[in-house]
User: Fold this.
Amino acid sequence: MKVAFATDDGSRVNAHFGQSPMFAVYNVTKNGGDLVELRRLPVVLNQDEAGKIESRLEAVGDCTLIFIMQIGASAAARVTRRKIMPVKVPFGSPIDEQVKRLVEMLQGKPPMWLAKVLRAEEEGTGEGEEADGTHG
Assistant:
């Protein structure tokens, strides 16, 4: 599954969804995680909130999970409607550690929130609930 991380440096989760200058996108399986690409967002002057959310949704539209520091309520609703689950993690969390935790969860018995996402992905549908990232 593809997983996005809101980041400003490509190595730590250190950005709010609506202000993230880029997303590090990884392909994560039971066998490990690999960086697919760093998706930088173009700087648009005077962009309204809806435009910021929409451009970020387009950037992560093919992802199953998105790890962020924070996300506003309206953005969270739009993300989950796109069948992407937002996962809040502490500011500055190293992306490689989050990938490692995710791989370990996939190898073992995934927590209920992750099992639900994986089931939905297999069925081609999704159910969105916000996870706080403290499970596991």
